[in-house]
Specification:
The chain is α/β, with parallel strands linked by helices and 265 residues long. The chain has one domain: Rossmann fold (3-Layer(aba) Sandwich). The chain has seven helices and nine strands, in the order H-E-H-E-E-E-H-E-E-H-E-H-E-H-E-H. The protein has a five-stranded mixed β-barrel. Helix 4 links the parallel strand 6 and strand 7 (173-179). It is globular. The protein starts with a helix and ends with a helix. Bound molecules: hypoxanthine (HPA).
Length: 265
Amino acid sequence: MNSAVELATAAAEIIREKSGVEQHEIALVLGSGWAKAADLVGQTVATISAADLPGFHAPEVPGHVSTIRSIKLESGKYALALGARTHLYEGRGVAAVVHGVRTAAAAGAKTLVLTNGAGGINSAWKPGTPVLISDHINLTGQTPLEGAHFVDMSEVYSKRLRELAREIDSNLDEGIYCQFRGPQYETPAEVQMAKAIGGDIVGMSTALEAIAARSVGLEILGLSLITNLAAGISTSPLSHDEVLQAGRDAESRISELLSTIINRI
Ligand code: HPA
C-alpha cells in the first residue's frame, strides 16, 4: 500500500469505529451553499471532527465546515458527508486535496457526490442556479495520480446519475467545469480563455477530487451552485462575502434537491 492509501485507510478505520458503520456506500463533499443537505438527507448517526482523523485539516475558509458526518439514509444505506474539503490553494499539496475522497473510498463508498460554489460563464445562469457538471477541464497543472496509472476519463461525471438528477428536476442545466488553482479569482481574460476552450463554470475544487475518485472506480455526480457570474461576464467585482451570501440564499432549495437525488441513488 502506498502512504496516501495507508493514511486514508487509517482515517476510514476511525470513521468505522466512531460511527459503528461498516460501509458508507455514498460519499458527499459539500461545498459552499450545499452544507444543509447533510441535515436533510437522513439521520446523522455520528459527527466526527476533522481534527480527529489522520490526514484531515480544519478548513481555512470562513463558511466552510470541518466535520465528517455518518448519515443513515431512508433506504438503510449510509452516507458519509465530508464538510472538510482541502483546496489546492491552501498549499498543502495535491495529496491533501484528495485525502477526503480516498478516505471515502476506503470507507466503502461506491458513489461520490461532489458539490461546489462556482462562477458561471453562461450569463443565463443567475446566482443561485444549481448546474450539473457534465465534464471538467483541469487547469491546475497538477494531478493526484503518480506513476504509470492510465485512468480512463471519458465519462468522469456519470451520465446515469445526471439523468437521475434530471428526473427529479427537469430544469437542471449542465456544463463543463474548469478548475483553476486560485486563491485569486480569475481575470476576465482567463474567463474568456475558459469559455474559448469549452468551459461553462469556473472554480477552485472538484476536478482533482474527481480524478482521484475515478482512479478507484467511484461513480460521480457533480453539482455546482452558481454563486456569481464569472469575472468580466458581469461588470461587478467578485467578493467572497457575496459568494457566501448567494450560497446562503440558495441553500435550502438546493439542499432539498440534493437530498432528494441522494435518496434515489
Ligand atoms: N471563480 C472561481 N471560484 C469561485 C467563483 C469564481 O467566480 N465563485 C465561487 N467560487
